[in-house]
Amino acid sequence: MTELRRRMTEEIQLRGLSPKTGRSYVDEVGRLARYYNMSPDKITYDQVREYFLYLLNDRKLSRSSMTVALCGIKFFYEKTLRRDWTPMTFVRPGRSKKLPVVLSREEVRRILSSVRIDRYRSVLKLIYACGLRLNEGVCLQVSQIDGERNFIIIRKGKGDKDRYVPLPESILVMLRNHWRTHRNRVWLFPSSKKGKISEDGPVVETTVQKAFKPALKESRVRKKATVHSLRHSYATHLLEAGFNLRQIQEYLGHRSPKTTAVYTHLTEEGNRQAVKRIDDLMRDL
What is the mean pLDDT of residues 148-153? Predict the structure, then answer.
């Protein structure tokens, strides 16, 4: 580890940033250094400006990716190098207004039933049934399951927050049956090498994503869904079932109720009622 990397890592730790955020920040500085093939503390303000123009115009990064790059490099200059960032105040790209992809309950069933490998089908069912993020599902540990109360506790979720999420009885039974196939003392979904269970850690996120894609194609669902669409669908289906937004916000681990409120635009029942009322209003035209 270089001296600069060590200093940046220490600054990240001192400010209480999550390990995932810290790794992202360090990676962004590494990409900047590789782009110019020089130590990042030698890179000038003008070069940083040119780099962000490259990310914007050539790489065409999304708003979220640009924001991570901006925050990581800004942190490095301000906290590690103790330099003034003012000359490099960049405007972030505008926030996207796109609504998330939501699957119907029947579409979810068709997709999950098309996943061939039991381990991936089980983790995808868990993600939908509990509204989890992908990394929360694959990294779930045996100790996080409260089988007596039918809850799981998510440790250090997004924003470094813990939360409780209801665990349906059918999913608890599924998890117990799946655990008996490997009996790993830590992970519910341990990684495997050449078909053999490994003690190194949980299953890799990308392998779950790769299992989802062919299942989506085989199910003949035409929506541009991803694994994260299962979480959006969970929230929408709970809202349709009569759960209030505050409950759903707690289960999803959202900081702001505004984030959760987007699902009010996505419920099928709400849309049907709206169309009916509009039909009644416009009937005399």
Answer: 91
